[in-house]
Amino acid sequence: MIGGERLTVHHKRQSTRTMVEHVTIALPRLPAGFAGTTVAVISDLHAGIRRGGTPGVKRVVEEANALQPDIIVLLGDMVHKGRHASRYLPLLSELEAKEGIWAALGNHEHSFLWYSRYVGPSRGPSVEQWRPMYAEAGIELLVNEAIPLEKGGSRLWLVGVDDAYSGYDDLPAALQGVDKTEFCLAITHSPDLIDDPRIAEVDLVLAGHTHGGQICLPLLGPPLAPCRRPRERAAGLLRSSGTTMYVTRGVGEAMPIRFRSPREMPLITLRRESSS
């Protein structure tokens, strides 16, 4: 019971060298045709730093493909700096998903680093420049926009919302044209999107950005994480305003320090749950 509402989620971590975590989430409004759909979530790769070099990127791609997911979503910060894009984004062209691969932008794609709030962001590629780079890798970039997905005679909306941490999010624009009676799955970078006044129109949000705080203290949780209310939002599953959100700890980090907050590639299985 989370936030007074019924919610079912099951975790099963894979105890191998991989970072895969199996998560099953049951949702009342999930269309029947999408029951059992698997979504591999890749966030915060930070390609271009030492642990995010070519071997690290290739390993993430191999592990994602080994899961044979229906859908792959990339939740931003795929590269550490914009200048790394031409070298590392082509490696993501090897990703394979039965029904498609979609991406959202993170603060690093906007060259908005953790200290940018104090000194301003540096210059980086624009959205118009990111789109063809992702397209060349066979990935569709969704920037404050939505597309319908159809399967088994059912339809849901996949909504890509730009990064809230750097202030580029626009959920109202993303929801324009979306049928409110249909299931809505949003992919975004910052979990603080959950504070948007229209978030109740979204059934499930997948977010990253926080790295789980990278350090999670017993009983106290993460002492620092780049989000509001970090004890609730730094990692895992929560429910707010009728919306379910899963925040991944990500597959990489800028600083190789982790304590009780390991790297993670969730494989999320969507299940239907009776509203009764």
Q: Can you describe this structure?
A:
- The chain has 276 residues and is an alpha/beta fold.
- It is built from six helices and 13 strands.
- The protein has helices at 54-66, 85-88, 116-119, 127-136, 171-174, 230-233, and strands at 8-13, 20-27, 38-42, 71-74, 101-103, 140-141, 145-151, 154-160, 184-187, 204-207, 236-240, 243-247, 265-272.
- Residues 1-8 and 13-17 have low confidence and may be disordered.
Q: Radius of gyration from the CA trace?
A: 17 Å
Lateral strand order in the biggest sheet: 1-2-13-3-4-5-6
When the domains are counted, the total is 1
Look at the structure and give the CATH class. Alpha Beta
Q: Which key terms come to mind for this protein?
A:
single chain, 276 residues, alpha/beta, Purple Acid Phosphatase, chain A, domain 2, 7-stranded mixed sheet, 6-stranded mixed sheet, 6 helices, 13 strands, 25% strand, globular
Short description:
This protein has 276 residues and is an alpha/beta fold. It is built from six helices and 13 strands.
Please give the structural blueprint:
Layout lengths: L7 E6 L6 E8 L10 E5 L11 H13 L4 E4 L10 H4 L12 E3 L12 H4 L7 H10 L3 E2 L3 E7 L2 E7 L10 H4 L9 E4 L16 E4 L22 H4 L2 E5 L2 E5 L17 E8 L4
Parallel strand pairs: 2-13, 3-4, 4-5, 5-6, 8-9, 9-10, 10-12
Antiparallel strand pairs: 1-2, 3-13, 7-8, 11-12
